[in-house]
Design goal:
single chain; Alpha-Beta Plaits; five-stranded antiparallel sheet
């Protein structure tokens, strides 16, 4: 009979398994570890549930803001991924404490590896459409977790650690590079999610003006990305002073070659800092008129009343003349010139124009509309209707058209003439005109 089926060998294996279960699994130390693990998992669950409830309340407050709702949806998916990761952090902290006080910690180690593997599965396969590759990656992750749980991964780690090479004065191994790439990937993903939360907090919770919200969002992005890059380099053991000479030459070349790009970038920060324009303002730059939809790092998006989106470089807004219709307030006065004939009763014409302004919905009654006599023209008496509105972002041409329509109807009903230019032609001399008849030709 083969040795594998030897009764004595089987009995020995069974006895060893029994002793391990009684001493390691069915023990008060393991029971205490399972109790701690259950409490920490429950704590992470309640924390993420509270975050989900907060997202639901915020979504009810802003159902019409598409970008905010999209940020909330992305944040809720982030919570689903972060839930096992929170449990991993809590259990990892408990494992550190147990190690410091030399207590039993095998159960904590296994639970931490399971939570980390579950986080990796959700992180890698959560957005994948191809379920075959998602299943393959899931199997690879759990295989990796099994290697760590049964302490079989040491041989592979030692093999990768022995494959090394030098970068300057720094010795790098293949294991370090793989771990640094994994760290960079996680930091990139985490930076995107943290910046999403940061932007959402600035938009919905803080009371900052829109321009300051964009400024702090961009500064936060720069800070997080810089910290992530510095952390990866520090993990690799690379001294950042090695890149001083290279970055100086690169910066000099970029400064000459991309000076317009940097000028627009700096201009964008200036616009956000001095709050001369902000999202929602109605501006006019040359013949371009519209409301500001987005303040970017390089350009500003201005949407006109025709639905056209103009991408204006930030440098033009800083160095050029810009008319901001809603910089300090939204009050805008409209000027509508109207000419009437010299036979018109001016008092009646003024009252009719003011009546039209009084019944136009968007025209404010405080400050009140006014009608002014501005001059005597060659063909008409020149009047001007002046009216105030407080919503220039809804357009100026439509309210002017409505006022002109009302004035035209009132003047036609009351027989008030709107003259047009006329010219009298006087001939000083007329040349002699001779006509020839049929009889004269014969």
């Amino acid at each position: 009979m083969p040795a594998l089926l030897d009764q004595a060998a089987l009995a020995k294996i069974a006895w060893q398994a029994r002793e391990y279960i009684l001493s390691q699994v069915l023990s008060w130390a393991m029971a205490m570890q399972l109790l701690i693990i259950s409490g920490l998992v429950l704590l992470s669950y309640h924390m993420t549930q509270a975050a989900q409830a907060w997202c639901q309340r915020q979504q009810e407050k802003c159902p019409a803001q598409e970008r905010t709702c999209a940020d909330l949806a992305a944040f809720r998916s982030f919570i689903e991924i972060i839930r096992p990761f929170l449990a991993f952090l809590f259990i990892g902290l408990a494992w550190r404490l147990a190690r410091h006080f030399d207590l039993a910690r095998d159960g904590l180690y296994t639970a931490a590896i399971i939570c980390l593997a579950l986080t990796a599965v959700r992180f890698v396969t959560g957005q994948m459409q191809n379920r075959l590759w998602a299943g393959i990656l899931t199997a690879v992750i759990w295989f990796w977790a099994a290697l760590y749980m049964f302490h079989i991964s040491d041989h592979w780690l030692n093999f990768l650690q022995q494959i090394d090479f030098a970068v300057g004065q720094v010795q790098l191994s293949l294991l370090t590079i793989i771990q640094a790439l994994a760290l960079a990937l996680v930091l990139y993903w985490l930076t995107r999610k943290v910046l999403l939360i940061w932007r959402f907090w600035l938009t919905m919770v803080s009371d900052l003006p829109p321009a300051m919200q964009i400024l702090f969002a961009k500064l936060g992005a720069i800070a997080w990305i810089s910290a992530s890059v510095a952390l990866v380099f520090h993990y690799l053991g690379l001294d950042l002073t090695l890149f001083t000479l290279f970055s100086g030459g690169l910066g000099l070349g970029l400064g000459f070659g991309l000076q317009k790009v940097f000028a627009n970038l700096i201009s964008g920060f200036i616009l956000l800092a001095d709050k001369s324009i902000k999202p929602g303002d109605v501006i006019q730059l040359g013949d371009k008129y519209g409301w500001i939809n987005f303040l970017g790092s390089r350009y500003t998006s201005v949407i006109s009343r025709d639905g056209l989106e103009h991408l204006i470089p930030n440098e033009n807004l800083v160095t050029g003349e810009v008319i901001n219709w809603s910089h300090s307030h939204n009050l805008v006065r409209l000027h509508l010139p109207v000419g009437v004939s010299y036979a018109t009763d001016l008092t009646q014409a003024r009252d009719l124009m003011l009546a039209v302004a009084a019944r136009t919905p968007r025209v404010l009654q405080e400050p009140p509309p006014a009608c002014r006599l501005v001059g005597f023209g060659d063909n008409a008496i020149n009047l001007e209707l002046r009216a105030w509105i407080k919503d220039p972002q809804h357009g100026l041409g439509n309210v002017k058209s409505e006022l002109y329509w009302g004035i035209w109807e009132e003047f036609r009903q009351h027989h008030i003439e709107i003259p047009f230019p006329q010219r009298d032609v006087h001939l000083k001399s007329v040349p002699e005109i001779r006509t020839r008849t049929a009889s004269e030709e014969k």
